[in-house]
Structures are given as C-alpha cells and as structure tokens.
Amino acid sequence: MADPIMFYFDFSSPYAYFGALKIDGIAEGFDRDVDWRPILLGVTMKATGNVSLAHQPVKSDYAKHDWERLARFMDVPWTLPDHFPIATQAAARAFYWIKDTDQALAKKFALACFHRYFGEGRDITTRDAVADIGETLDIDREELLAAVSTNQIKQRLRDETQAATDAGVCGAPFFIIDGEPIWGSDRLWMIRRWLKSGGW
Amino acid sequence: MADPIMFYFDFSSPYAYFGALKIDGIAEGFDRDVDWRPILLGVTMKATGNVSLAHQPVKSDYAKHDWERLARFMDVPWTLPDHFPIATQAAARAFYWIKDTDQALAKKFALACFHRYFGEGRDITTRDAVADIGETLDIDREELLAAVSTNQIKQRLRDETQAATDAGVCGAPFFIIDGEPIWGSDRLWMIRRWLKSGGW
Asked: Is the Cβ pair B50, A62 closer than 8 Å?
C-alpha cells in the first residue's frame, strides 16, 4: 500500500470538522490509509505570521455563515459553540495516547470530539470533557486522565505541532499526499484527482 | 433579468485572475449578468484585520505552488510576476472609466490586464502600462491617461473599495449573488448551485 495521506487538523477548526467527516471515505476508495495528526493551529499560525479569525470580525462573520451553509449542504449536524475557538491540548494529547495503541479507535475518538464540539456545541476544552468522550468508546477514564497529564504526551503534542509547521502546514485541514500539500476542506476534489491519476 | 452577480477583485490577486476567467461563462448559462468591481484589496484587508501573504512566508510558498497547479488544471497561462503583489490603482481607475461607457469593453480590458500580469508576468503598475493595454483594445491612449489622473476617478475607486468593505468583502475573488456572499475561486460550484436552485 502506498504511503498514507497525512491529515493535519486542530479540534477547534470547523473546516477540519468538515474535512474529517470525508477524508477516510475518499481514501478508502483508493486503498489508502489516512494518518490523522491533531496539532495546535494557534502555535502554527503564530509561527507562520497568520492571524486568528477572532481578530478579523468581517472575515469571522463570513466564516460563521459559511460553516452553517456547508453543514447544511453536507447534511451534518452543526452548532457554533458558545466557546470558540478553544484550547484543544486535552483532546489532542488524548488522541495521540489512544493512537499509539489503536489508530482506528483514535479516529473514532477524534470524530466523537468533533461531533460533541461542532455537532452539539458542547465544550471539549477540559480533561474531564475529553474523558467523558473517551468513556463513550469504552476508554478507561482514569487511564486517559493520567495519560494526558504526563510530560511525555505534552512534549509529543509540541513535537507534532513543530513537525507540522516544519512540513509547511499553515492552516487546517491540511493534507499532504505523496509530498503534495493540499489545504482546505474545499480541496478534497484535488485529493481525489491526485489519487485517481497518481500525480499531475 | 435578475440582479447581476457582484464580482469584487483586485488585479493583483491570482485567485481573482482564475475567477475572472470563469465567472461570466457560469453566469451566462443562467441568463445572469456579472458586475465587475475592482477594489484595492490591501485597503480592505487593513480594514478587516487581515494580513498580506507577503508577511506569511509559509502560506506564501504554499500559495505559489497552488497557483501554478491551478493554472495547469485550468489550462491557462501562468507566470508569477517578478513584482508581486503590486499597486493596482491605475488599472482599477481605468477600468471604471471604461465601464461608465462600455461595460463589455471594461471586462475585456480587465481580462487583458490579468493576462498581461499573470499570463505573461509583465508589470501593470504604471499608467503607461495600463494605457498600452487599452491601446490593444482601441481605447484612446491620451484620453485614458487623462482619465486615470482625475480626482473624480481617484475618489471613485476609494468609494468602490469602501462600499465593498461595507458589503463584507474580505478577500478576492469575492462574489455576492442575491445578497449571498461567496468568497474564493474554489467556490464557483456554490455559485452554480445558487443559480440552479435560486437559493438554498
């Protein structure tokens, strides 16, 4: 099997939520795996000189309208959370801890985080909220809470974020397929095109 | 005929170049006109808190790669100009002067500006360069040079840029169709969808 498609995202990115709901379905049709890598987008944006939507009221209003209509087109649940954007360290750390033993379960966990945050509009900032999500997937609550507090997993998330920045990730969702960078949930057609033709 | 699709752009935007090559073809199929409105995107971005690609090296590298591949997919000429981005006052002022008597000619002029800048990579900053482009369309050189220097046309461009900012334009190409804002050359599918269904 060819190398997996790299999928970089932040749990606080609505466009990443839309991308996460589709990317594995696209890849499966071409016998490709997808390697999910949550990162701290704020850190990446700071490193690349970008500014948050929170500091761009006009663009932010446009984006809110855009998320709402995209969700309608995709027929997926959508609620703009009261707390947005949020710090996603707890969810991202838990993801990597789960992924190290079970990648498929980690993806289920990530989708459950996205669903709770953007589907139901419920906060996922705290470790307790993340442990709640884990429990719905039969992930041991105490083990998860202990795991996301270790220095090792904190460093892991820093390293993953740095590696993504070094790889040129400057937004989310960001995909790298066979070295080709593709940014945005608007660009899934480009991934399909690459997979079909093996390049361009 | 229903109201025209508003098309806001800056002559220095590669994505606007791609959008400009397609928007009228899409609209024609649905018996819609397109109202082209060049603006000074830098002014709009400053007003909305956005930052230029020039200050975002990683995003800028991604964008350069993206423009090159999009041009290949669309099979249109593409050369990243040595001077980029540029001030586009001269081209935008000339556009409005032409448009006030002949909208179809103004669009031809705009496409010729885009072609010279992004198709051939030649500078279009100066009034002389803009007059050269006008001459290829039998537009009187001296009349154009005089027109783009009046206070009236300078104010016109300021007013158009302000009106676009007030309308929520926060990037280019930016379209407004029956009040619905649609941003980006990636979103032409959304315009088609709107035109087909008369809303969503």
From this structure: no
Do residues B86 and B147 lie in contact, with contact meaning Cβ atoms separated by under 8 Å? no
Write down the pTM of the prediction.
Answer: 0.94
What is the domain-level CATH number for residue B59?
Answer: 3.40.30.10
d(CA B151, CA B158): 11
CB contacts, 8 Å: B50 with chain A: 51, 56, 59
Query: A51 and B49: CB-CB below 8 Å?
Result: yes
Structure-token match 């995107």, residue found: B41
Taking the C-alpha atoms of residue A44 and residue A16, their distance in angstroms, rounded to an integer, is 15
Q: If interface means Cβ-Cβ distance under 8 Å, which residues of chain B face chain A? A: 47-51, 55-59, 61-62, 65-66, 69, 72-73, 165, 168, 170-171, 181, 183-184, 186-187, 193, 200
A101-107: average pLDDT: 98
ipTM of predicted assembly, 2 dp: 0.92
Nearest chain A CA: its distance from B130 CA (Å): 32
What average pLDDT score do residues B72-79 get?
Answer: 97
Domain that holds residue B120: 5-197
Q: Count of domains in chain A?
A: 1
